[in-house]
Specification:
alpha+beta, 4-stranded antiparallel sheet, 1 helix, 22% helix
Length: 54
């Protein structure tokens, strides 16, 4: 398992799963990206819905 940062976001990569859990740096749940390529889209949607950065 590996934690990685995407700006104000933290993602958790697990070699046993394609899905990638995404949280804000403060621990707020953002959602699950279906694969690593979908992380940016999930973060963009979260920022649109919540009015900007985490």
């Amino acid at each position: 398992m590996v934690l990685d940062r995407y700006g104000d976001y933290v993602v958790i990569f697990d070699a046993d799963h394609n899905q990638v859990p995404v949280f804000t740096e403060l621990g707020q749940w953002v959602g699950t990206a279906e694969n690593p390529d979908a992380i940016a889209t999930l973060i963009d949607i979260h920022e649109l819905v919540n009015g900007g950065d985490a």
